[in-house]
Structure prediction request, 92 residues.
Amino acid sequence: HIGRLARFIYFEMMQQSQAKLDLQGYDDIKAAHNIVFQFIGEGKRMTEIAQLANTTKQNMKYLLEYLEERAYVSRRADETDKRAVIFFLTEK
Prediction:
């Protein structure tokens, strides 16, 4: 099946990417965090990222808080809705 073969390529790519991140000192970033980096773009609400990543809001909250504690993402109030927060990538 082509799907299985593509999966092997994907996993190999992820292992190589993780090894490079580890060598460059980013050993606190794991495969689970890739969905944040993949979908955050120029800044999004947690609920938007979770929806795009096809995961729960609870899971995305955990991932974003982990990355925020390590200064990979930051949060700002949403100008259009002061109750909401938008997450952005940092320079790190």
The chain has four helices and three strands. The first helix runs from residue 2 to 23.
